Amino acid sequence: MDDxxxxxxxxxxxxxxxxxxxxxxxxxxxxxxxxxRCGMGPCQGRTCMRLIARIIKEKTGRHLDEILMPASRPxxxxxxxxxxxxxxxxxxxxxxxxxxxxxxxxFGGKDE
Length: 112
Ligand code: FES
Fold this sequence. Notes:
The protein has 112 residues and is mainly alpha-helical. It folds into two domains: 6-66, BFD-like [2Fe-2S]-binding domain (Arc Repressor Mutant, subunit A); 79-112, no CATH class. 37% of the residues lie in helices and 4% in strands.
């Protein structure tokens, strides 16, 4: 891989940036995720985490089985931001707003 090769295309992180981060002592996917934001883009790391795991393997000599995937928090698939803004406004009080049908179809739940 070339130094300027993009490893995480969502966050525009290059191979060299990942290598430098590993050299600084960040040797887990969770640490690299927190430092460089790899895995926090729209694909949630589906593309980059395996590549970064291979870079960690190259730099540290650890086996891939020892390199744990980072903590994953829902939603695990990209959700349009408009979904969160699509509450049906019932009053000026935000607590009285109702979830839109689209929001309920994705996240479930009932309005009281
Ligand atoms: S490529 Fe890294 S988060 Fe999408």
